Amino acid sequence: MNFHVLTLFPEMILQGGQTSILGRAIKNGYITLNAVDIRDYTESKHKKVDDYPYGGGAGMLMQAQPVYDAYQAVSKKLESGKARVIYLTPQGRTFEQKMAEELSKEKDIVFLCGHYEGIDERVLEEIVTDYVSVGDYVLTGGELPAMVMIDAISRLVPGVLNNDTSADFETFHNDLLEYPQYSRPEEWKGKSVPQVLLSGNHTKIAEWRLEQSIRRTKERRPDLYDKYKKKQQVIEKLLKKDKFLYIDMIESLRRGRGELIYNKEGGVVVKDGDAGIYMLAAFDSVTAEEIADTILYENETGQFLVHQECLLKSMEKRFRIEEAFPIKHAVYTQRVPLSVSKEITFTPLGIDYLEEVMEHYHIVPDEAYIKERLLSGNIIGAFIEDRLAGFVGIHKEGSLGILEVYEAYRRKGVAASLEAYMINRQLSCGYIPYGDVLTSNEASLHLQEKLGLCISKEILFWVELNGYLC
Length: 470
Ligand code: ADE
Prior knowledge:
The protein is α+β, with helices and mostly antiparallel strands. The chain contains 15 helices and 21 strands. α7 (202-220) crosses α8 (222-242), α8 (222-242) runs antiparallel to α9 (247-254) and α10 packs parallel to α11 (309-318). Adenine (ADE) binds at residues 88-90, 133-135, 137-139, 142, 145.
């Protein structure tokens, strides 16, 4: 990810990029930070970049020419050829986590920092794609807001956070405020650390943290709490209908990643924010037609999890469907961790393993996808006597998968241990572990049953849409 900042104060940007996680991410090559001095591009002999506003009024305006030329210089160097250009202004859309998530998928982003009383409107019209504010207050310039955005976006770029703090393994709090945290000593000024945190029982700890998060959100951010409540109601509804069939939607909402796109008596549509995947459920054929007609017409390409055949039929009438794989969900409903072989050492695989993982895993033959999964610490290797025997992963929308055991280690319980390890890891985050199994994959269905996972009775479909039918 490359950040380019057009500014009159490049030192503010460069200083901010030297410290802590941001500094390390730059050093390790995960992000670049390029501060461009707008003054270097002025045609004025006296290096002037501002002038009085036509029509009068207080203060000075930044002129169009130096801003435009600075932008042109940057735009020629863009790795991707084009980029979003974000103008920081209190008049913009308010910056939020969702926007950070969306922007973290870009290759290049250009930030334009204003000063004085603003920038000549004509150059803004010419180059700006997004107007963004960091809050309802007025600062002296756009540099601090740009750094706020760069910080929030960078931590979502795969590889920037180390594996322990991987965004996918954060305990769910996207819809809720963070729970209280405690460190040593156990007692300070007569106040003790809550007993549950010393218990070592990860399930109980996760429950306690969720309870604290809910209480805190209700007290401090009733607006967020209302949104959370609405999602909880949908979760209840889906749980009552069929908790195994809808586990993907339930977990996406529970983990705070899912957005409710459609919620009526006859159906529910959830968009998993992290994966950009739509999960569709229609409880009757009229709703199936309505979803295909409305929601999908705005999202005619990409991946979809379709929970009913009638919905798939409604989609087939309107869209080009690349592939539709019938799958079943396998769900681990118990709270108890599974036992794992002591002979195996589990370690997240780094990017050095890209070639090896690609060589052995063929279900999703997409190098960019596997690269992202490795960088974000979501593929775990099983080592036996220092040799890699296989691996397991978490897919982008949160399901268990990417499971492979090397030929020499098969039929020795390695697959069961790999999956058990991942299940335990998910349990410790308070998740309900689940995976998608192709209905034709007998071996995997057998493994799921052996590990005690419940298989959904109903079939659902992984669907790839590729635009409208003419
Ligand atoms: N420039 C000045 N104030 C700002 C704010 N609140 N957000 C973004 N840019 C700004």
